[in-house]
């Protein structure tokens, strides 16, 4: 009934499963800007994956906590503070993750 050319039914991961540590799967975080300040209050971060995935499954975290605010869906907002701080933002997708460093400028 099905020959050697039968299609795989686990699309879009027919060639790479992000839960399989040995699979070919890449993640990259890109941003609209790398520094937040009073003048540039927002940064939009996006996750690029190969193969393509749904962005709704990405979980965002940041360290140190409280230095910027995650408004939602990859949008981060400046939180006023006296010192310039580097913030590591992590995007997690299933068993994989990628990081991006934002700078919060002090006032």
How does this structure look, described?
The protein is mostly beta strands and 107 residues long. The chain is 0% helix and 46% strand. The chain is built from no helices and eight strands. It has strands at 26-31, 35-36, 42-50, 59-63, 68-72, 75-78, 85-93, 96-104. Strands 1-3-6-5 form a four-stranded antiparallel beta sheet, with no helix packed on it. It has a four-stranded mixed beta sheet with strand order 2-8-7-4, with no helix packed on it. A hairpin with a 2-residue loop joins strand 7 (85-93) and strand 8. The termini are far apart.
Task: Provide a quick synopsis of the model.
It is built from no helices and 8 strands. The strands form 2 sheets. A 4-stranded antiparallel beta sheet has the order 1-3-6-5, with no helix packed on it. Strands 2-8-7-4 form a 4-stranded mixed beta sheet, with no helix packed on it. The protein starts with 25 loop residues before the first strand and ends with a strand.
What keyword list fits this structure?
107 residues; mainly beta; four-stranded antiparallel β-sheet; four-stranded mixed β-sheet; 8 strands
Layout of secondary structure:
Layout: E1 26-31, E2 35-36, E3 42-50, E4 59-63, E5 68-72, E6 75-78, E7 85-93, E8 96-104
Parallel strand pairs: 2-8
Antiparallel strand pairs: 1-3, 3-6, 4-7, 5-6, 7-8
Structure class: mainly beta
**Which residue ranges are poorly predicted, with pLDDT under 50 across at least 5 consecutive positions?**
1-9
Residue-averaged pLDDT? 83
Helix content bin: under 10%
Instruction: Round the Cα radius of gyration to an integer and report it.
Output: 18 Å
Strand order of the largest sheet: 1-3-6-5
Q: Calculate the terminal CA-CA distance, rounded to whole Å.
A: 69 Å
């Amino acid at each position: 009934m099905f020959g050697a050319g039968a299609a795989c039914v686990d699309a879009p991961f027919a060639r790479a499963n992000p839960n399989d540590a040995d699979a070919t799967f890449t993640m990259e975080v890109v941003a609209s800007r790398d520094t937040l300040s009073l003048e540039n209050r927002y940064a939009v971060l996006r996750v690029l994956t190969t193969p393509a995935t749904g962005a709704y499954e990405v979980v965002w975290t940041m360290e140190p906590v409280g230095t910027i605010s995650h408004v939602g869906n990859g949008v981060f907002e400046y939180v006023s503070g006296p010192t310039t701080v580097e913030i590591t933002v992590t995007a997690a997708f299933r068993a994989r993750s990628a990081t991006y460093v934002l700078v919060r400028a002090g006032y």
